[in-house]
Amino acid sequence: MSVTSPVSTTAVRATGIWKVFNEGQANEVTALQDINLTVEAGEFISLIGPSGCGKSTLLRVIADLTHPTKGSAEVAGMSAADARQQQRYGMAFQQAALFDWRTVRRNVELPLELQGWSKSARAARAMELLEMVQLADFAGHRPWELSGGMQQRVAIARSLAVDPPLLLMDEPFGALDEMTRERMQNELLRIRQETGKSVIFVTHSIPEAVYLSDRVVVMSPRPGRITDIIDVNLGSRDEDTREAEAFFAGVTAVREALRGRTGGSAARARVGEV
Amino acid sequence: MSGRLRAVWPPVLIALIFLSAWQLLVVVQDIKPFLLPSPSLILGNFFGDFTLMFNAAIYTGTTAILGLMFGTAVGLVLALAAQRFGVVNKLITPLAAGLAAVPIIALTPILNNMFNITSRTPKVIITMIIVFFPVFVNVTRGLIQVQPVQLELMRSMNARPRTVLRQLRIPNAIPFFFTALKIAAPLSVIAALVSEYFGGPQQGLGSRIASSAANTAYGRAWAYVVASIITGLIFYLIVLAVERWAAPWTGRARSA
User: Fold this and answer.
1) What is the spatial distance between Cα B106 and Cα B170, in angstroms, rounded to a whole number?
2) How many helical (H) and strand (E) elements, i.e. helices and strands, does chain A have?
3) How far is B80 from chain A (nearest CA, A)?
4) ipTM greater than 0.90, yes or no?
5) ABC transmembrane type-1 domain spans which residues (chain B) (predicted)?
C-alpha cells in the first residue's frame, strides 16, 4: 500500500493545533495548546489525561466536529473536513447514541443509508458487521432491549459500516462495568486485528490505555497539551497479558507520566520486556 | 390476555362500587333528580334515547375532528418552522403562549357573528385554536431537544440538515407529538361541545345538554354528559392505538 501512495501510511497528522474557547473574554480557556501528533496507519493510539485536558476536543478536531483555532488536522492525507465528507473515519461515543426508532440492524445501516447504498446491499453489510460483533441474533431487536455492552457493540459495528480506515472512539467503554469493559477491550482488539483499522481511543483508564494501545499519549490540563508519549510493546494480547510484568510496567509508566514525574523513564524502559 | 384483564378489572370494580354508592345515596336520601339523578335514571335515558345520543355525538365529534386536524396541521407546520428558523421560534412562542391565555371559548359569539352562525365554521376554528397550542409547544420541543451526541454522530456521518431533520429530529419528536395529541384529542371534544353553548345548530352534545337541562329533563341532560365522556374517551383511545402502531418505541425505557 505504501508503494502506491505514500500518504496512506499516515492515518492522522495533527500539526500545531490550538483550540481556544471564548477567545478574548474573561472566561477564555485554552483547551489545546500546540498539539503535534502523527498516527501511523494501523496504529492504536490512546489519549489519556484528567478531565479538561482536551483529549475529547482533540478527537473532535480530528473528526472535524469542531474547528481548531490554529493549526490543522489531516486524516488519510486529506483535510479533516474532506475526510469527514468522504467518510474516512467512523466514530463511537461514550453513549451508544442508537436510534430507538430503528432496529439494531437498521441502526448499523444508518451510515450506509446516508451514503445511498441500496437496501439489499446495506442489509447484507449490516448483517456481516453484526456477525463480527456477535450480535447477529439481535438484528431485529430494538436498542432498549439490549444491555449497555451490547448497545456499545452495535455502535462499534455502525462505526465500521462504511469500512473507514480510521476509528475515533471517545470513551466508548466509559459507562460499562469492569467485567464487560475487559470483554469489550478484547473484542475491540480482535476487530482491529481482523480489519487492520487505525484507532484513536480516548479514555480515563490507565490499564485500558496500556492494554489496548501501541502508544499512549499522555495529556495534561490548563492548558491542554501533550506531556508525554509512551510506547507500549506487549505483542499480541490475551487474558494473561493483564497480569504480565510488562503490562504493569506500562501502567506504572503512564501513571508516573500523568503525575508529571520525569522518573517515569525507568519504568518505561521495562515496558516490552517480558 | 390475562395481563390485560388484570389491568382492566381494578378501575371497573371501582367504577361499579362508585355507581352503586351513588344509586344507594339517591334512593335512600330521596334526592330529587334536579339535584342529582340516579345512575339508573341516567343510563335509562342514555339507552332509551340512544339514537339521539349517537347523532349528537357524531355532530360534535365531527366538529372536534375537523378542529383537531386543522389545529394539528398548523401546529406541526409552525413547529417545523420554529425549529428551522430561530427567529420564527422567538416570534411564535410568546404569541402562542398569549393565545393560550385568551379565553378562546368566550370568543365564540364574536366568531359566530363573523361567520355564518348556522355553519360549523366558528366552532371548528375555536377547536383548532385550542388544539394548536399543545401540539406546537410539544413538537417544537421534540424537534429541538435532540441528544447532542446524536447530532455529533449525524455530523460525523456527513448528514445534511434535511437528513438530520428526517432521520433524527422528526422521529425524536414523535413521542412528543403523541403526548400532545393525548392532551389535545379529548380537549377538542370539550372545545367543540362548549362552543355549542353560544348558539348555532342545535344537534350537538353541548346544545342538547343545555336544552335538556332547560326543559328539566335532568336524566337526559346527564345522559348527554355520559355520551360526551364516551366521545372524549374514544378520541383518546384512538390516539393511543395509533401511537402503539406508529411509534412502538415510545413509552419504553429509553436507551442511554
Assistant:
1) 35
2) 9, 10
3) 20
4) no
5) 53-239
